[in-house]
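[recover] target loaded
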């Protein structure tokens, strides 16, 4: 987790530093539904490389946004899920979804 000194003074900048890229937002979107395995995420997030997915998951785990659970099975199973802190981002993504739907409706109206 980042220390207070490592975070920007501005709260919006802090949020952007934690989730402000396309892939992290889409990972969170998926994890809001249920826990996912790495390969499931990789297949669902069209265009993401394994390296970017791995780096994003590691960073989000280090920031306390997601949890990584390893099950002692053969072969080992690893699941990623939102932590309690990550779950607290649900209202942010709900607002983004609502705004996106309104924007698409507005654009559709303009094109008519």
């Amino acid at each position: 987790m980042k220390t207070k000194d490592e975070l920007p003074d501005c709260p919006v900048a802090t949020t952007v530093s934690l989730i402000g890229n396309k892939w992290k937002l889409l990972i969170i979107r998926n994890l809001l539904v249920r826990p996912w395995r790495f390969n499931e995420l990789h297949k669902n997030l069209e265009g993401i490389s394994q390296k970017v997915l791995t780096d994003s998951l590691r960073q989000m785990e280090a920031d306390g946004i997601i949890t990584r659970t390893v099950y002692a099975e053969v072969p080992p199973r690893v699941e990623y899920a939102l932590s309690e802190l990550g779950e607290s981002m649900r209202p942010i993504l709900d607002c983004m979804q609502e705004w996106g739907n309104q924007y698409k409706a507005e654009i559709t109206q303009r094109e008519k």
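[recover] notes: Helices lie at 11-19, 22-31, 38-44, 50-62, 84-87, 90-111.
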